[in-house]
Specification:
It is a single chain. This protein is α/β, with parallel strands linked by helices and 145 residues long. It is 32% helix and 16% strand. The protein contains 5 helices and 5 strands, in the order E-H-E-H-E-H-E-H-E-H. The radius of gyration is 14 Å and the shape is globular. The protein starts with a strand and ends in a 27-residue tail after the last helix.
Length: 145
Amino acid sequence: MPPARILIVEDNAASRDLMSYLLSAFGHTVLVAENGMEGVDQGRRLVPDLIVSDVQLPDIGGFEVARRLHDDPLTKAIPLVAVTALAMVGDRERVLAAGFDGYLPKPIDPEAFVGQIEDFLPLRLRTSQPGTLKFNCCRAEEREH
């Protein structure tokens, strides 16, 4: 099984390093971008299997990152997951409405993070067996329910 190529767009070094460490430990290839413009550029150049992005970034925000990626034919099909400190009432809905496919609040739970992220990958790219990790409860499809 090939590893997934996952792009992390995160300006906070500690958060970026933790997410990178966890995903790498499960065999995924991790690509990193430290700001929104770099994330959009790398998304277009590298076409990863999944993009994990903060919403509050120093140059262009995560909502603009989502818009640009979804407007580009090369990247519009790539799942985009927000990992953000935005945790007020209505923030999850705003994030999903902005074009993100999923939402994970910070701080992340290290024991559940890989399973939550892998939930957005095709089965062939997942490293965990079903039921061995906690899976994401915050997919965009749940907005309809």
